[in-house]
Specification:
By secondary structure, the chain is mainly alpha-helical. The chain has two helices and no strands. Keywords: Coiled coil, Signal.
Length: 148
């Protein structure tokens, strides 16, 4: 690009000098010659700049597409790993919770079983004592009736 500008600048200097000499010799309009020459050169560079800009546009569109793909892939991988870790954490917490619940319910169940067993034992013991008393009384009554 720098080389082209150097060639262009050299050509302009040469054209200006030639045009000045030519204009002085032939009495033509120097400004018209310069204007026409520069416009021709400008149109070449304008067309080339349009092509170069179209190329840059495609280049950066591809870069943006690659960037979005990378972001999407990274986000998907990152979130997938996070989700797996969270599920593992949830599994551990729920397992620990279930173990605590099992222990608490087993302890409570055992306490209640012992309480109910004691109540049953107490009822049976009272019934034994009551029946023993009734049998003793019945024995005493029968002994008094039959042996006196």
């Amino acid at each position: 690009m720098k080389r082209k500008l150097l060639i262009l600048a050299t050509a302009l200097i040469f054209m200006t000098g030639t045009a000045k000499i030519y204009a002085e010799a032939n009495d033509t309009t120097l400004i018209a010659l310069i204007k026409e020459g520069i416009q021709r050169i400008g149109s070449v560079f304008a067309a080339k700049s349009d092509q170069d800009m179209a190329g840059l546009k495609e280049k950066y569109k591809a870069e943006i597409s690659k960037l979005v793909d990378d972001i999407s892939r990274n986000a998907s991988n990152n979130l997938s790993m996070h989700e797996k870790k969270e599920i593992q954490r949830a599994d551990q917490e729920l397992k620990a919770y279930l173990n605590d619940v099992k222990q608490q319910t087993t302890e409570q169940s055992n306490l209640e079983l012992e309480n109910v067993k004691k109540q049953i034992t107490d009822i049976v013991n009272r019934n034994i004592a009551q029946i023993q008393n009734e049998l003793k009384a019945d024995l005493e009554k029968q002994l008094q009736e039959k042996l006196h």
